């Protein structure tokens, strides 16, 4: 492929530079060759007189001699007498006509004033013009110049046409992605612009498609399988767009299509694509995610339009629930908000705009009808100078996408450790702080070492930190999680599975891993109605946890009714607004002090 491309360029360069080089040669050797054919020496001498300064002149006494010259060297123009012995001028013209190799040489026939018939016959046999004897010097010179000028014009037109043809053939090859046969991104954007402006009555849509974890697929299988996937998808897209749309292979695992809106049915498109991928019988699911931009602003460039489709795609990529999204105002606002967050996060962390609140976790003694905090969860806040307090639900997902979460998490953990050391300095009985550990930390072990360093730095014990992880850590790296959990257990940390039951892998984790506590988000469980059924599920979770020797923490407990119900179900550890909202560190210290 590399070699082919470079040879295209070599050819293009040859056309451009070779052309110039040839012109250069012409201008250096600027005397053209003129063949004067006449049996009368005097006639030849007159013509020679006219042209010897300008041309390199060869003389021939008859047609036969002329042909010998023509065959043996390049001739630019022939002045040809018609009446000659051995071989006539007319015979020379006929010979030239039947030998296309020489047919391009312009011939001016020289005739006597009264020989109109011969002039006509000569012109019919391809002569470019005629000169009448006796010669008028200015007419002779003009005619020769005209004929040569015309000839050059024709040649340059022919050359231009050949050059255009070659370039357009090469352009076509450059516009096509070699592996899939679809348009390259550049050609796609260009042709999309032409299509949109050429069909103002049609509303078009851009669809951006990307394969989830394509890199992994390439690593698990081989490049050939990867190529087969891409080619299969390409031929599907090609069929989908037909003659009214365009399809492009943008980069390794991304495609784009342009379709008139009336042809767009995303459910059908994804279903068809899934079926195509399924037919390849690769044991790992190959899933495409898509984003759609329905053109509502024709003043955007096609590249900006494709960008919007891409943004819509990123909003659903790797989600379990949705495979495609449309670009709309809500998404636009969300994406802009994400951009602002991403731009400001670094200075915010450096300028101390992040801080941690602590939400107490209570133990309820049903018989004694008492309750007391036994731990607190550290929850991050962003004190933004203009926007006020920003909630983690707004910034954590952005940080998880761009990787900043690892730094912010470490900041929160250090705050928690510092806070624990303050509890000790105040002479309080230390209560554990539960910290959130984003799944992004589970790609390597380094966060465990970091936690151990923090404990040493603040002179703390592992039991003082409860670690909250979510099911996402299991989905992303199950083997890695097993190793890390083993290490955390052996170090003496307590591990909580947060948001238990919020996705399908919960039971898998309980089967495979050692977890100390489950956190069940009551608010979320009851959010969608079906209270009777949720009661049964909650009861089953609490019973199961007991049998597996795990504690259950109910979080999001907002009302006395919920609190009562949970206790009758056998859950006595609670977190929620009913007990306490998240407190700033001083308020939490005050709460702990009041217990003494
Ligand atoms: P989460 O870990 O499930 O934390 C519980 C969330 O529920 C907290 O929201 C808490 O304020 C809220 N909450 C507790 N009780 C109630 C209640 O009775 N009613 C209502 N409506 N809400 C209650 P918050 O602080 O906004 O945090 C949201 C999420 O952000 C957390 O959910 C957690 O996933 C994430 N988060 C917060 N801090 C951190 C952090 O330091 N690191 C990481 N990775 N994630 C964090
Ligand atoms: Ca949590
Ligand atoms: Ca939670």
For this entry, give a set of tags.
52% helix, disordered N terminus, 22 helices, TIM Barrel, binds ligand C2E, eight-stranded mixed beta barrel, Rossmann fold, binds calcium ion, alpha/beta, 596 residues, five-stranded parallel beta sheet, Alpha-Beta Plaits, 3 domains
Please tell me about this protein's structure.
The chain has 596 residues and is of the alpha/beta class. The chain has three domains: 7-153, Response regulator (Rossmann fold), CATH 3.40.50; 175-327, Alpha-Beta Plaits, CATH 3.30.70; 338-594, Alpha-Beta Barrel (TIM Barrel). The protein has 22 helices and 19 strands. The strands form three sheets. Strands 11-12-14-15-16-17-18-19 form an eight-stranded mixed β-barrel, surrounded by five helices. Strand 4, helix 5 (116-124) and strand 5 (129-133) form a beta-alpha-beta unit. Helix 1 packs antiparallel against helix 6. The longest helix has 39 residues, at 137-175. The two termini are 77 Å apart. 29% of the residues are buried. Ligand C2E binds next to strand 12, helix 13 and helix 14. The modification 4-aspartylphosphate is found at residue 81. It comes from Anaerovibrio slackiae. GO terms for molecular function: cyclic-guanylate-specific phosphodiesterase activity. Residues 33-148 form the Response regulatory domain. It holds the Pfam family GGDEF.
Bound molecules: ligand C2E, calcium ion
Total DSSP helices: 22
- How many discrete structural domains? 3
The profile of the biggest β sheet is:
8 strands, mixed, barrel
